[in-house]
Amino acid sequence: MPSYTRFLVAGMLLTGTLNTLLTKLQDMECVENCHDPDPARRKLFEQPTWQTLNMFMGETLCLLVLYANIYWAQYRQKHQRDLDEHSPLLGAASVSNADDDTRAAALVHASDTLDDTRPLSGWKTCLMWLPALFDICGTTLMNVGLIYTSASVYQMLRGAVVIFSGIFSVLFLGHRLFSFQWVSLFLIMLGVGVVGMSSVLFPPQTIPGHDDGAPAALGSTSSFGTLAAATGVSEKSLLGVCFVLLAQVFTAAQFVVEEKIMHRYHVVPMRAVGLEGIFGLTTTAFGIPVLHALIGVSHPKGYFDMYDGFHQIVDNPGVWMTSIAIMLSIAFFNWFGLSVTRTISATSRSTIDTCRTLFIWMISVFLGWEIFQPLQVVGFLILIYGTFVYNGVVAPPFCKPTEADVVTVSTVGSDVEQ
Q1: What are phi and psi of 127, to 5 degrees?
Q2: Degrees to nearest 5, angle at CA 390 with 388 and 393
């Protein structure tokens, strides 16, 4: 593997791992009564809607980087023309660089490269608002689920998106799944079930700030926190599992809508990520005060209290510093991921991405955020094997897929981090 490709793979694994761990670390930040001797009175950061806003800010950076690159390419192209006029020999020596810049500047002009699809421009860019809405629902639910479960279980459960995206692609896109892919979906479902069971039977370790092994939400006065406080530890873990799994339904719907749009219109993946970032950012920014007026006023200091969430961020260095780190990790993860897709393949990217689950689990155990659970390892192995079979990386022993059968069912969504 070339050194540049290794750099891209390493960067993708590093930023993807950091994104999940930083989000969990942010959930564990104390924001109120931090010096109270009674851990149950300490309040930790619980603002999934603000975390969703932060995620879209990171995706918006992708669009800024894309257009900055295009502007820089056009500037170099103009500069090269000036050099050609004054020094033809020097200009000829730099033709290859100029060609590279020309190709970079043409990224958003899909009509120059594809004849069977139209470029996504003008009012048609608003079509990306629909997957952004699904992204808002999915990301917010996952952020809530992460409060109630461990980082590794959260990341493993996200593998269930393959199940829903595969089924939705058959129902709404007319895709055909081969027998080995249906078997792999069953394996993934089995792996997700084992991982979820491990989380319920063996709940996460005690989180700093609480002495009863409860997630960060226990000290909250929010509606979800009250529900968690009224149940046992296993029920709270089950609640987190349900939130994460429900989020995968919205994420799968997002992937299917993206694929539908990109089959009809051509849009560079980095631009698609940026457009979703802008639409998601504006929608979430508008939704936060609306939710505050509808729910936050009657449930102060909860998930939808806009003022409380804002002060929790700006008044606590640990929270706003992790917010910046999360935003940057999302932007870099998308850039590294798209580069891996372009350099190797989408299937290779999805395979490599599963490895970060292992790193998240190892680091969480090392930091003492959770304890080693053999049942969780069994579920993870089944989940990974099912994912590899689905992507055609490995062939099941009972049905050998032909080369023509190995197709990617819904690869559009794999280019976007949530």
Answers
A1: -60, -30
A2: 40
